[in-house]
Amino acid sequence: MSHAHCLVVVDYQKDFVDGVLGCGQPALDIESFIEKKIQEHLDARHTVFFTLDTHTEPVYSDSVESSSYTMHCRKYTEGWLPYGVIKNYMTHPGVEAIEKATYGCAELASRISASTIRDVEIVGVYTDVCVFHNAVLIYNTVPDADIRVFASGCASPDAAMHSQSLRMMRTFVTVVE
Ligand SMILES: [Zn+2]
Fold first, then answer.
1. pLDDT, tens digit, for every residue of 56-97?
2. Structural domains in the chain, sorted by start
3. DSSP secondary structure, 58-90, as one string
4. Cα–ligand 1 centroid distance for 52 (angstroms)
5. Ligand 1 centre from 65 Cα, in Å?
6. Angle of helix 132-141 relative to helix 159-169, nearest 10 degrees?
7. Tens of pLDDT along 29-64?
8. Can you give the pTM of this predicted structure?
9. Could you tell me the distance, in angstroms and rounded to a whole number, from the CA of residue 103 to the centre of ligand 1?
10. How far is the CA of 64 from the centre of ligand 1 (A)?
Protein backbone atom coordinates (compact mmCIF):
# COMPACT_ATOMS: atom_id res chain seq x y z
CA MET A 1 0.00 0.00 0.00
CA SER A 2 1.41 3.36 -0.94
CA HIS A 3 1.77 5.93 1.74
CA ALA A 4 0.02 9.27 1.92
CA HIS A 5 1.55 12.73 1.58
CA CYS A 6 1.11 15.99 3.40
CA LEU A 7 2.29 19.58 3.42
CA VAL A 8 3.04 21.33 6.69
CA VAL A 9 2.87 25.14 6.66
CA VAL A 10 4.59 26.21 9.85
CA ASP A 11 3.45 29.42 11.58
CA TYR A 12 2.93 31.51 8.44
CA GLN A 13 1.03 34.00 10.62
CA LYS A 14 0.86 37.77 10.42
CA ASP A 15 2.83 38.33 13.64
CA PHE A 16 5.76 36.37 12.18
CA VAL A 17 5.56 37.97 8.72
CA ASP A 18 4.96 41.71 9.24
CA GLY A 19 3.75 41.82 12.84
CA VAL A 20 5.38 42.04 16.25
CA LEU A 21 7.96 39.31 15.50
CA GLY A 22 7.91 39.80 11.74
CA CYS A 23 10.68 38.43 9.52
CA GLY A 24 9.95 41.26 7.09
CA GLN A 25 10.96 40.92 3.45
CA PRO A 26 12.25 37.30 3.61
CA ALA A 27 8.80 36.16 4.81
CA LEU A 28 6.94 38.31 2.26
CA ASP A 29 9.12 36.79 -0.48
CA ILE A 30 7.95 33.21 0.25
CA GLU A 31 4.19 33.91 0.19
CA SER A 32 3.73 32.90 -3.46
CA PHE A 33 5.93 29.81 -3.07
CA ILE A 34 3.81 28.69 -0.11
CA GLU A 35 0.58 29.34 -2.01
CA LYS A 36 1.83 27.26 -4.97
CA LYS A 37 2.79 24.42 -2.61
CA ILE A 38 -0.65 24.52 -0.96
CA GLN A 39 -2.41 24.41 -4.33
CA GLU A 40 -0.19 21.58 -5.55
CA HIS A 41 -1.00 19.48 -2.48
CA LEU A 42 -4.72 20.30 -2.47
CA ASP A 43 -4.93 19.42 -6.19
CA ALA A 44 -3.37 16.04 -5.35
CA ARG A 45 -5.82 15.64 -2.43
CA HIS A 46 -3.07 15.60 0.17
CA THR A 47 -3.68 16.91 3.66
CA VAL A 48 -2.34 20.41 4.24
CA PHE A 49 -1.57 21.18 7.87
CA PHE A 50 -1.22 24.71 9.16
CA THR A 51 0.47 25.02 12.53
CA LEU A 52 -0.83 28.07 14.37
CA ASP A 53 1.34 29.44 17.13
CA THR A 54 -1.27 30.31 19.75
CA HIS A 55 -0.76 32.09 23.04
CA THR A 56 -2.96 33.39 25.83
CA GLU A 57 -2.22 35.31 28.99
CA PRO A 58 -1.33 34.74 31.78
CA VAL A 59 0.04 31.39 30.54
CA TYR A 60 2.46 33.02 28.09
CA SER A 61 4.21 35.15 30.71
CA ASP A 62 5.06 31.99 32.66
CA SER A 63 6.42 30.13 29.62
CA VAL A 64 10.10 29.63 28.80
CA GLU A 65 9.45 31.21 25.40
CA SER A 66 8.48 34.53 27.01
CA SER A 67 12.07 35.15 28.14
CA SER A 68 13.14 35.25 24.46
CA TYR A 69 10.11 36.62 22.63
CA THR A 70 7.56 39.30 23.37
CA MET A 71 3.88 38.24 23.42
CA HIS A 72 2.70 37.28 19.92
CA CYS A 73 0.03 35.25 18.14
CA ARG A 74 -2.57 36.01 20.76
CA LYS A 75 -5.52 33.78 19.91
CA TYR A 76 -8.11 35.30 17.54
CA THR A 77 -6.16 38.54 16.98
CA GLU A 78 -5.17 39.59 13.46
CA GLY A 79 -1.55 38.73 14.20
CA TRP A 80 -2.55 35.14 15.00
CA LEU A 81 -4.16 34.59 11.59
CA PRO A 82 -2.22 33.32 8.57
CA TYR A 83 -0.67 36.12 6.51
CA GLY A 84 -1.96 37.48 3.18
CA VAL A 85 -3.47 35.10 0.64
CA ILE A 86 -2.55 32.11 2.82
CA LYS A 87 -5.31 33.17 5.25
CA ASN A 88 -7.88 32.33 2.56
CA TYR A 89 -6.90 28.66 2.69
CA MET A 90 -7.45 28.29 6.43
CA THR A 91 -11.04 27.11 6.00
CA HIS A 92 -10.46 25.28 2.71
CA PRO A 93 -11.49 21.60 2.70
CA GLY A 94 -8.28 19.59 3.02
CA VAL A 95 -6.58 22.16 5.21
CA GLU A 96 -6.30 21.37 8.90
CA ALA A 97 -5.13 24.06 11.28
CA ILE A 98 -3.57 22.84 14.51
CA GLU A 99 -2.90 25.25 17.37
CA LYS A 100 0.25 24.95 19.46
CA ALA A 101 1.78 26.85 22.36
CA THR A 102 5.33 25.51 21.90
CA TYR A 103 7.84 25.77 19.04
CA GLY A 104 7.13 22.23 17.86
CA CYS A 105 3.61 20.84 17.51
CA ALA A 106 3.39 17.48 19.30
CA GLU A 107 -0.18 16.95 18.10
CA LEU A 108 0.92 17.31 14.48
CA ALA A 109 3.69 14.74 14.87
CA SER A 110 1.26 12.33 16.59
CA ARG A 111 -1.37 12.80 13.88
CA ILE A 112 1.18 12.04 11.15
CA SER A 113 2.50 9.04 13.09
CA ALA A 114 -1.01 7.60 13.51
CA SER A 115 -1.86 8.12 9.82
CA THR A 116 -0.51 6.53 6.63
CA ILE A 117 1.36 9.78 5.84
CA ARG A 118 5.04 9.05 5.37
CA ASP A 119 5.89 11.78 2.88
CA VAL A 120 6.07 15.19 4.52
CA GLU A 121 6.90 18.53 2.93
CA ILE A 122 7.59 21.52 5.17
CA VAL A 123 7.55 25.28 4.55
CA GLY A 124 7.10 28.25 6.88
CA VAL A 125 8.77 30.51 9.44
CA TYR A 126 11.15 30.94 11.32
CA THR A 127 13.51 28.49 9.64
CA ASP A 128 15.67 28.31 12.77
CA VAL A 129 12.89 28.11 15.35
CA CYS A 130 9.50 26.57 14.59
CA VAL A 131 10.40 25.03 11.21
CA PHE A 132 13.49 23.50 12.80
CA HIS A 133 11.63 22.24 15.88
CA ASN A 134 8.84 20.68 13.81
CA ALA A 135 11.30 18.97 11.46
CA VAL A 136 13.13 17.50 14.49
CA LEU A 137 9.87 16.49 16.14
CA ILE A 138 8.39 14.80 13.04
CA TYR A 139 11.70 13.06 12.26
CA ASN A 140 11.92 11.58 15.75
CA THR A 141 8.22 10.72 16.03
CA VAL A 142 7.92 9.26 12.53
CA PRO A 143 11.44 7.93 11.76
CA ASP A 144 10.28 6.14 8.58
CA ALA A 145 8.93 9.36 7.01
CA ASP A 146 10.56 11.08 4.05
CA ILE A 147 10.78 14.72 5.06
CA ARG A 148 11.58 17.56 2.69
CA VAL A 149 12.17 21.14 3.82
CA PHE A 150 12.07 23.78 1.08
CA ALA A 151 14.69 26.49 1.49
CA SER A 152 12.69 28.74 -0.85
CA GLY A 153 9.59 28.25 1.28
CA CYS A 154 11.19 29.15 4.61
CA ALA A 155 12.30 32.44 6.15
CA SER A 156 13.87 33.90 9.26
CA PRO A 157 14.54 37.50 10.32
CA ASP A 158 18.19 36.40 10.62
CA ALA A 159 19.68 35.34 7.27
CA ALA A 160 22.66 33.61 8.90
CA MET A 161 20.41 31.58 11.20
CA HIS A 162 18.24 30.65 8.21
CA SER A 163 21.28 29.17 6.44
CA GLN A 164 22.78 27.55 9.53
CA SER A 165 19.56 25.83 10.52
CA LEU A 166 19.09 24.47 6.98
CA ARG A 167 22.63 23.09 7.17
CA MET A 168 21.82 21.39 10.50
CA MET A 169 18.57 19.93 9.14
CA ARG A 170 20.45 18.26 6.28
CA THR A 171 21.54 15.53 8.70
CA PHE A 172 17.99 14.23 9.10
CA VAL A 173 15.80 15.67 6.31
CA THR A 174 16.17 16.48 2.64
CA VAL A 175 16.66 20.21 2.19
CA VAL A 176 15.43 21.27 -1.24
CA GLU A 177 17.30 24.38 -2.41
ZN1 LIG B 1 5.12 31.49 20.16
1. 999 999 999 999 999 999 999 999 999 999 999 999 999 999
2. 4-176 (3.40.50.850)
3. TTGGGSGGGGTS-S--BTTSGGGSBPGGGGGGT
4. 9
5. 7
6. 10
7. 999 999 999 999 999 999 999 999 999 999 999 999
8. 0.97
9. 6
10. 10
